[in-house]
Design goal:
Shape: globular
Largest sheet: 5 strands, mixed
Structural class: alpha/beta
Number of helices: 5
Strand content: 15-25%
Length: 154
């Protein structure tokens, strides 16, 4: 998770929402990524997707059984679907996402009883405070740079 946090800081440095992800097989990183939708002009360029793509290229396979994804923020629905298709065994995430998380916060897609042909084990709250603080600091900074706008028409 520490490497995922370092990658999340790279995302923040690039003006992206600070999320980082590392895919591990047999204790070794095989893929890594950080949020890049703005830089890549690609709405699917979430940290998890970038890490899956990186691992697929390195391992020469789009199936990644037996791997564990460490990610600083609970995966969204799109990323959960990609994790199922990639056959990732386990997801370990830091901060919960109460607005769009797909590992139990809003949706429960990965370990659920859906009719997917693969289930992904999930564990959350790992280094949650560090992951959450990075996100809070990023958005606090962003809000401080935004012009003061009256939000209620007063």
């Amino acid at each position: 998770m520490r490497l995922a946090l370092e990658l999340a800081q790279r995302a923040a440095a690039g003006g992206e929402v600070p999320v980082g992800a590392v895919l591990v097989e047999d204790g070794e990183p095989v893929g890594q990524g950080w949020n890049r939708p703005i830089a890549d002009q690609d709405p699917s360029a979430h940290a998890e997707i970038i890490a899956l793509r990186d691992a697929g290229r390195r391992l020469g396979n789009y199936r990644l059984p037996g791997t564990t994804l460490y990610v600083t923020l609970e995966p969204c629905v799109m990323c959960a679907g990609a994790l199922v298709h990639a056959r990732v065994a386990r997801v370990v995430y830091g901060a919960a996402d109460p607005k769009g998380g797909a590992c139990g916060s809003v949706f429960d897609l990965l370990p659920s009883d859906f009719r997917f042909n693969h289930r992904v084990e999930c564990a959350g709250g790992i280094m949650a405070e560090s992951c959450s603080e990075l996100l809070r600091a990023f958005f606090r900074e962003r809000r401080s740079q935004a012009p003061n706008v009256c939000r209620f028409g007063a």
